[in-house]
Amino acid sequence: MFHESLRTLFWREFASIKQGAEYFHVSKPTITRWLDGTVPINPMAEKLLLIKALGYLPNDLRWSGFRICEKRAVFITPSGREFSPKELESFVFWRDEHRQFVEMYGHIEYPKVYPAKENVLPFRGGRRMNAAECLADCKLKVHEPVVICMRIYFSGYL
């Protein structure tokens, strides 16, 4: 990465040198040397900066302007609309409903704009989600769980 593009990308992603140093787990003088161009940037830090700048989306023109907010866990479109993971999961059903609605009644001229639904964390209030069912809990003969576990282990999934 060229020196100018590194500086531009760094200041677009971070508000201060301290914030960048905390993100890359390096000292402030190291960040200063990278930005001055006296020391070349670590290749892994360069890749990490590119991933952060892209927002974990592919480097493709069709994804230009889309972002992911890590703190709120929402997907942001170029027009500023936000989608939570649950909304994206149910998008297919909404699309089908919308198409049927348009076929029946036509388009609405000025639809309301709603904010993204709250993205609830998996662990809240000291309550944990239920664990997945274990193979050993199944009603199998005594030797069958061992055989199944051995098959899974030797197939490379464990």
UniProtKB/TrEMBL annotation:
<keyword id="KW-0378">Hydrolase</keyword>
<dbReference type="GO" id="GO:0016787">
    <property type="term" value="F:hydrolase activity"/>
</dbReference>
<dbReference type="InterPro" id="IPR021077">
    <property type="entry name" value="Phage_phi-Lf_Orf112"/>
</dbReference>
<protein>
    <submittedName>
        <fullName>S-adenosylhomocysteine hydrolase</fullName>
    </submittedName>
</protein>
<dbReference type="Pfam" id="PF12375">
    <property type="entry name" value="DUF3653"/>
</dbReference>
